[in-house]
Amino acid sequence: MRNKLAWMICLGSLAMYGLLAASSTLWDRDEPRFARATMEMVESGNYLYPTFNGQLRPDKPIMIYWAMAAFVKVLGCDELAFRAPSIIGMAISCYITFLIGRELFCARTGLWAAVILATSLMAIVEGTAATADGLLLACMMAVIWQYIKAEGRMGLAQTLSMGIALGLALLTKGPVGLLPVLVILVSGYLLRKDRLDTTGWVWHVILACVLATIIFLAWAVPANRATGGLFAKAGLGHHVFGRSIRPLEGHGGRWVLFLPYYIPVAVVFLFPWSIHLPGAISAMIGGRLAGRKELVLLLAWICTVFGIMTIVATKLPHYVLFAWPALAVIVARTLVQADACALAERDVRYLKAGVFIYGPLALGFALGLGSSGWIIGTKAWPGLTAAVMVSLTAAAAIYLQVKGRFVRSSLVSALGTLALVGAIATLVMPALEQVKISPQVAKALRPQLGDEPVATYGYAEPTLNFYLARRLDHLANPVQVRQWFEDAARGVLIIPQQDLDAIQYRYGPLQYSVIASAIGYNYSKGRRMTVLAVRKGSSDG
């Protein structure tokens, strides 16, 4: 019966993520980069290495593009096709989280852990995005599950399964896919005195790593050779080692100042389940959640992920996604123990005190949703509706939490999250679509384009590449824009009206005609703008 409930949770998460993923066009900037690179792969027939805008894209290995391309073959060039690997990957991760919670504790803990993971803010974001992290999490969860299921007594079947899952993780996101191995080694070392076989399991892990490396190199060597060594140079040199030693693309800062970065990330992105964090920490420290083996494994899992990513100079919230299933299991176990009256009075007090974390977070989300319409210039009522739902859910959850009805509070949070996701998908997202610039420009422009080249200045968001489905030339400065207009060749330029007016004020009137325009909100830069598509050579300017 509990296994059927776990499958229902898994299918429910699929439906929830699918509904949200199908409700919007792609969001800048990562989603369209992955999606357009996949389409260039499908259109060119080159499945060995990805390109974006005609240039090598060494940011990630090949697996995510293969997965997206497979769904494109089935669903066509649709946003859902590019998000499907994340949707399915996150749903699989929820089911494996159930298996781990059941294996370490009991089926009820596993069920709650699956619910907590599925409805946490981090999982909802990453489980509906056209990026690599949802798929990566499923691969890494398969690795850690093989280890937990074997209880350290690994055989050939577990070794092969672990090696294949590790290989897929490496093909999805490179060296970060080895995080489960670090977790296994750390926990195994800490539990060495509790094992009868103190070293044999290590050799199985090493063999799994060897198999994973062979799987990875079977693609990486030909791909690197085909790109003249650029894939390894840029992929490892810039995107792995460079990202580790210095912040890239503004994600991070002074190392010492950003040391505690992932503490608020855990609090915010575990929402709404961060309401239970104080009580869970208290119960875990007091040894009232588990025996030594389970406690060491879960702490090694969380601390290894947070520790490694704290050392890495570039900081982004989803870098610690792999810790979320372990956090979900700990919170779930806290709920089960609280319901069984197995917690200390201090733990109960801390569980109730969690409202002082949860309340401000809920208030912040409600204010953000409620004011979104005014901020970005769209209809206000969809955001206000969602804000009211957050407020009502939070009020009920806080009331029940303070009364000590922790399971009921959790049911309210889970059901409230489902309702909120439904409201966002059906009300908020359609309103936001009205102010997205790239889809509007592309829709108006594509019927008018032949084979003429398209350039951009001042607005070069990757969604333009995806929705125009073509290569774009990016102009770097006003001088290049003026030269583009003076060139005799035909072409179309996509440019914010403010920039075009400034260039004409500086260099004089330009000859062009406006063939498409869109007024919207550039959320990547946080401002409203009017974007024009102009064809040179006419006299409308």
Give me the secondary-structure category.
Answer: alpha/beta
Strand proportion: 5-15%
Q: Give the strand order of the largest sheet, numbering strands 1, 2, ... along the chain.
A: 4-3-5-7-6
Count of runs of 4 or more consecutive helical residues: 23
Q: Mean pLDDT, as a whole number? A: 93
Helix content: 55-70%
Largest sheet: 5 strands, mixed
Total count of strands: 7
Radius of gyration, CA atoms, in whole angstroms: 25 Å
**How many domains is the backbone divided into?**
3
String of helices and strands: HHEEHHHHHHHHHHHHHHHHHHEHEHEHEE
- Choose one word for the global shape: globular
What is the first-to-last residue Cα distance?
Answer: 70 Å
Low-confidence stretches: none
Indicate the topology.
Blueprint: H1 2-21, H2 30-44, E1 51-52, E2 55-56, H3 63-75, H4 79-104, H5 107-119, H6 121-126, H7 133-150, H8 156-173, H9 179-190, H10 200-226, H11 230-245, H12 262-269, H13 277-285, H14 292-311, H15 324-339, H16 345-353, H17 355-376, H18 381-402, H19 406-433, H20 437-445, E3 454-456, H21 462-468, E4 472-474, H22 478-486, E5 492-496, H23 497-507, E6 512-522, E7 527-536
Parallel strand pairs: 3-4, 3-5
Antiparallel strand pairs: 1-2, 5-7, 6-7
Helix pairs in contact: 1-4, 1-5, 1-19, 2-3, 2-21, 3-4, 4-5, 4-7, 4-15, 5-15, 7-8, 7-9, 8-10, 9-14, 13-15, 13-16, 14-15, 17-18, 18-19, 20-21
